[in-house]
């Protein structure tokens, strides 16, 4: 016996080859070589519901065994102006933890809120692995 319960084990992601080689002068700003980690830090955005749609679509949830992600952001919406983008993982809305919530529960939370504060982190790799486009 190794002293670890079975639920304590963590699966490692599959190996991904490094991005193709680019000369140093072409790397700055390139998405495969960008080392600005600020893009991946948790952030909060706040906005007030109006009669217009929120301006973003979400996917995922407990029923799909994955986190909730921003899937699409409408052009010229409040969500886009505040910096939401596809691949943002939704961590919480108005203090409600979104890590163990179904898609329908998440939609209800978003529908009921007038003032909305969303905590996000950009996690495109998990989003792409979870929702591979055919």
From TrEMBL:
Coiled coil: none annotated. Residues 44-113 form the PDZ domain. It holds the Pfam family PDZ. This is PDZ domain-containing protein 11.
């Amino acid at each position: 016996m190794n002293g670890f319960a079975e639920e304590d084990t963590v699966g490692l992601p599959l190996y991904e080859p490094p991005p193709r080689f680019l000369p140093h002068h072409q790397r700055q700003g390139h998405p495969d070589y960008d080392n600005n980690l600020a893009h991946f830090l948790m952030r909060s955005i706040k906005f007030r519901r109006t009669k217009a749609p929120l301006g973003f679509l979400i996917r995922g949830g407990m029923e799909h065994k994955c986190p909730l992600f921003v899937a699409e952001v409408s052009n010229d919406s409040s969500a886009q102006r505040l910096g939401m983008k596809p691949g943002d993982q939704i961590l919480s809305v108005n203090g409600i933890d979104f890590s163990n919530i179904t898609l329908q529960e998440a939609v209800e939370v978003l529908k009921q809120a007038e003032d909305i504060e969303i905590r996000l982190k950009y996690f495109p790799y998990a989003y792409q692995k979870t929702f591979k486009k055919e």
